[in-house]
Amino acid sequence: MADIQGKIVMRLRNYRLRLLEIYSGCWMTISLAIKKVKHGSNLRCWGKMNVVRYPASSITLGNRCSFRSDNSSNMIGVNRRCMLSTHSQKAIINIGNGCGFSGTVIGAMEKIEIGNDVLCGANTLITDFDWHGILPHERKTSPGDSRPISIGNNVFIGYGTIVLKGVTIGDNSVIGANSVVTKSIPANVIAGGNPCKVIKAF
Description:
By secondary structure, this protein is an alpha/beta fold. The chain has one helix at residues 4-34, and strands at residues 38-39, 44-46, 50-52, 58-61, 66-68, 83-86, 92-95, 100-102, 105-108, 111-114, 119-120, 125-127, 149-151, 156-157, 162-163, 168-169, 174-175, 180-181, 189-192, 197-201. Strands 2-5-8-11-14-17-19-20 form an 8-stranded mixed β-sheet.
């Protein structure tokens, strides 16, 4: 038997998301231009992301990138906006083509390089610095240590994962949900845990 009511509800949801995408895309295109953030063609946004570019730093987005900041745009659950931020004049965020983010936070003091076709699951965090000093007298005055991050092509980073400073993740690798990546992960592996370790190669 046809589920007419279910079909109507699903169609209304799809219409809402399409309208949200159009509105958010227009808004973010203007916002990124004002903030001097470079982006390629076919930028797609569901909800407004928060972008802060430190003076003289660089944020570059490739073609066909998508950002889901609306809490119902990804049914696994997005609990915050996507946020991109640089925190020094020398900081660089480079994101390749065809990448997708859901409630992802990316913060750079030095450099975060993300390859092509990278998918970041909901509520992930990628940061190349500590955000504050470790010792008590440094916590309000120092951003702590920083080391660049490099994420290869076709990487999938699972829900709730944290990628910390100095990490390289090789091409095609999969990082399991809720992992904490403190050391580099090679290409073509499945890894997970806290701290994140290789589970198997493929």
